[in-house]
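Duplicate of earlier report; AMP nucleosidase input re-posted below.
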Amino acid sequence: MSESPYSSSTQATVSLADEETTLRVLTDTVFGLWTAVNNLTRLRPSRRTRYRVTIFGSARTKPGHRAYDEVRRMAAGLTTLGCDIVTGGGPGLMEAANQGARQAQGSSGTQSTGIRVDLPFEQESNAFVEQAYVHQTFFTRLHHFVLMSDAYVVVPGGIGTALESLMVWQLLQVRHLRDTPLVFVGAMWGGLVDWARTHMLRPGDELISAPDLEIPRCVNGADEAIALIREHHARWQSDAGAQPAEERTH
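Output:
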């Protein structure tokens, strides 16, 4: 059995002049904090009462653009189903999703949420976020998306959107997430899946398994995405909503 970094042999006072031991104490402490956080995030409510759809997308797309209008309409449609909408809280297609959610809320009790990362060029959540969270790093922010979400919809975006969607894809691949839709909207994401099929499933040089490419559902537009989420949401209402959350998300 390996010795804990907090065993009695490590409790002696350490001079800051002893740089090697000081660095070891700091390293052990950071790893200990990570362990504590990982243990805390294992806890789940016995029943989830809200169904949350996270929409990942570009921060650069402006109001009036066709994609902005399509994402706003999609978020409104999902809100009408009774889904909370979660985004990165910033401008662009994130704003479009939060705006669509706010406009369709009525008295449904749904929420429009933003999970931001602290960036020098993006200071505030968009005006349509009702509940905002702010992270100092992308790593904790991505973890927050995973803890909150019951489904993911990926609309056009750049490197940040690709990072988010690939992380979710990988968590589904290794079954750290289960029964969680990942919907890619638009030709650019179908192109990504085609690229993976060409280069990661090259005969004789397979880097993934064929079923991995079936994880994301590729659709052309908002209506198809809403239809897929509607189907999953209906199952959640009748079955998954009554399950312990750990049966669905790890």
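The chain is about 45% helix and 10% strand.

Merging into the original ticket.
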